[in-house]
Fold this protein.
Amino acid sequence: MLRELEWRAMHEPRRTGGQIALPPYRFDYVDAMSTWPQWDDIFIHQSLEFDSDAPAPRILDCGANIGLASIYFKRRYPHAKLTAFEADPRLASICRRNLAVNEGTEQVEVKEAAVWTADGTVEFVCEGTDSGAIASLDAPVEGPVTQVLSVRLRDWLDEPVDLLKLDVEGAELPVLDDCRDRLGNVRAMFVEIHESNPCRRQTGSMFDLLTAAGFVFDVRALTPLPWRSSQVQSPFTDPSLSWVATVRAWRS
């Protein structure tokens, strides 16, 4: 699968959709160049691997994209009670379709909505691959802007959650800050911290929030995003001012 995705990423134009059927997997994608590293990260390097004693762990996949993480979770925990959230209408439709055709993932609940701090609607930049973002966050992504439904994550944490995966392109800090009084119900988290504005960093506040909520955490990876340019001057050569860091947090 990895070799096939790599070949397509190298030979297909960006944002060219397609379908792959290599047993036991079958899925549609919108951009091989973004799907290839997702597959490598999730299925080869097992970046979302976690242990749970619960026979049917409760998992929230926030920022599900085309559904690869949800497919991985259900393969690992076939009886998991899993809800996937995806704001981009096109990606949500593909996510729903992918979860319907892969064995064992048919029971995943897919919510076509942006995870946010309030129920209602928000303007969303549909970047088209894996970087769509709520427009009010000033994320450095381009694409058509559309109104999408939003859900308040806090309201989904009234029950115990075994794993919260949060990959919401810059909305992670305001969303978790709104959930402060509910984080005691979360046992473990994967959080992608997106830093794109060098004048308004959120990593320090995120670490403070996790510590105050009683989590132990580590930084699994930090990936520079040099194509997201910034006009901030630096005395250093080729500063990388935009990046995404993967944080794993858990209760000891």
About this structure: The mean pLDDT is 93.
